[in-house]
Amino acid sequence: GAGVSQSPSNKVTEKGKDVELRCDPISGHTALYWYRQSLGQGLEFLIYFQGNSAPDKSGLPSDRFSAERTGGSVSTLTIQRTQQEDSAVYLCASRPTSGRTGEQYFGPGTRLTVT
Amino acid sequence: AQSVTQLGSHVSVSEGALVLLRCNYSSSVPPYLFWYVQYPNQGLQLLLKYTSAATLVKGINGFEAEFKKSETSFHLTKPSAHMSDAAEYFCAVSFRDDKIIFGKGTRLHILP
Q: I need a surface site. Which of A78, A100, B29, B108 has the fewest CB within 10 A?
């Protein structure tokens, strides 16, 4: 079956512009996660959703970052007024309804470059 | 506070030698633990996971990890390294809720 997909795969934007990153999880997966991967920083947790609710937004770096999920499916991560330090690979993962033991399935990521 | 620590951002081993990648966690509740691997220019995939059954967990490609509660560790091992094992390895922990956090990763280099 289809895996987690993310779009766009690459995004180059000018400093100060807004960007939207999209994640399509595996059908039926209720949990959805966003991470940021920067060189030497590993996977930085940003936010996760259970259904359409986000129980934990503590990882969002600033109020320029926001995310939403609709219909328990597609999620969008929005970065407003992008800064050069926002350049990174943004990874999305989904997880089935098997509780804490279920593995995450990762998408290929969106590489964001802010010039 | 919940945290995951991977000791060594880079580890080099000779082909055929033992691989040992270290992961320690901090948690006041029983965690569920995962190791993921990311090959060059590829996405992350699950190597193995601990979910409170057997403390010694076997995964794909000959890797295994042992959960040691007393040491709050979940180190990843493989008896004999292959060139194809060169990749970045991430330890991840799920705590009380469904939040999952990752360590900073360890890049494994295999020397011929």
A: B29
